[in-house]
Amino acid sequence: MCALWYEGRVRDPATGQHLDQRGIQLEAGHALGRYGSVKLYFSRNNSFEDRSDIAYLERTLGLRFMSAF
């Protein structure tokens, strides 16, 4: 299992305003014998909440199955 939290700040060159980004990512995996594995993941990213003209929210949920053959 893995958990990641991140924050960042950049400056808009046109206005000089600070723009913030925040996010979280979670992953969990499990081996399926010696021939494969399954992984579940989720991420959420909030970007530039203070600027409604460029703000966005991104969410990702996925399930990955890997197999060796």
Topology:
Layout: E1 2-11, E2 18-31, E3 36-47, E4 56-67
Antiparallel strand pairs: 1-2, 2-3, 3-4
- Major sheet attributes: 4 strands, antiparallel
In the sheet with the most strands, the strands line up as 1-2-3-4
- For the terminal residues, how far apart are their CA atoms? 25 Å
Shape annotation: elongated
Give keywords.
69 residues; mainly beta; four-stranded antiparallel β-sheet; 4 strands; 0% helix; elongated
Describe the structure.
The protein is mostly beta strands and 69 residues long. It has one domain. Helix content is 0%, strand content 70%. The protein is built from no helices and four strands. The chain has strands spanning 2-11, 18-31, 36-47, 56-67. It has a four-stranded antiparallel beta sheet, with no helix packed on it. Strand 1 and strand 2 form a beta hairpin. The radius of gyration is 17 Å and the shape is elongated. The model has no long low-confidence stretch (mean pLDDT 91).
